[in-house]
Amino acid sequence: MKALITGASSGIGQEIALYLSELGYDLILVSRSDKSLRNLQRLIKTKCEVVSMDLTDRENVWRLHEMYKNDPGVELLVNNAGFGVFGDVDTTDLQKDLELIDLNITAVFMLTKLFLADMKKRNFGYILNVSSIAGFMDGPLMAEYYASKNFVLSFTRAIHTELKKEKSDVHISVLCPGPTNTNFNNVAGVRFNVKPYSADFVAEYGINKLFDEKLVIVPGFRMKVVHLLSKIAPGVMSRNIAYKIQRKKKN
User: pTM for this one?
Assistant: First the structure.
């Protein structure tokens, strides 16, 4: 058994790696930070390869798939890499916005599509795409991030239906955590105003529910309530609430 995990150098990705190792999975860990990956590799109890790679570059995404497409042991893909930016859309750095789209959307799309085709040929495999509780809402002041997580959620749900209609033994899920104690805030330049969940709780909950073949995975009671409210609250109301929440996050 082998799992390929992007964004594995810290936070939820790192905790997923540690948990899957405890479950007996060999690992392929992908991130831009070679040093962080090497540090994590020393903690892994199973076989572990590290790939230092910037997935905002499409050529690297192609290359990553080429490296492992013929490895029948890769039966689990975790698309965890991603980041957020904060601010009004007209004031955020355009290059950073484009990198966000490349990592949060394009890389997830490409890796899912490519490895899904490999798994369908073998008629077995699991894919876990990491979205966010933000994926259920619009997000003024973090519009790019929220929209990218909307895409991951919608894309994953659509593929799930395709697989079910085909009666495939390949399964796909989407993890939608709320505030989690990771490096996300430092990158986005914001701070949480509620107590975050621990990354190890989110990781273990997400993997367990993936193996239970649950489609949409929302860790924690509070976030389940937020998910429910996002379904019933009028759009204008939810956007205004999101705006107030985001404004309070500013460092």
Answer: 0.88
- Identify the CA nearest to 149 among candidates 108, 199, 197: 108
Active-site residue among 25, 68, 126, 145?
Answer: 145
pLDDT, one tens digit per residue, over 184-209 is 655 545 555 568 899 999 999 999 99
Q: What is the pLDDT of residue 191?
A: 55
Looking at the structure of the chain, the number of domains it has is: 1
**pLDDT at residue 221, rounded to an integer:** 84
In this structure, the strands spanning 2-6 and 26-31 are parallel
φ, ψ for residue 21, nearest 5 deg: -65, -40
205 as an active site residue: the answer is: no
CATH for 156: 3.40.50.720
Q: Which domain holds residue 140?
A: 2-249
Distance CA 106, CA 97 (A): 13
Tens-place pLDDT, residues 87-100: 999 999 999 999 99
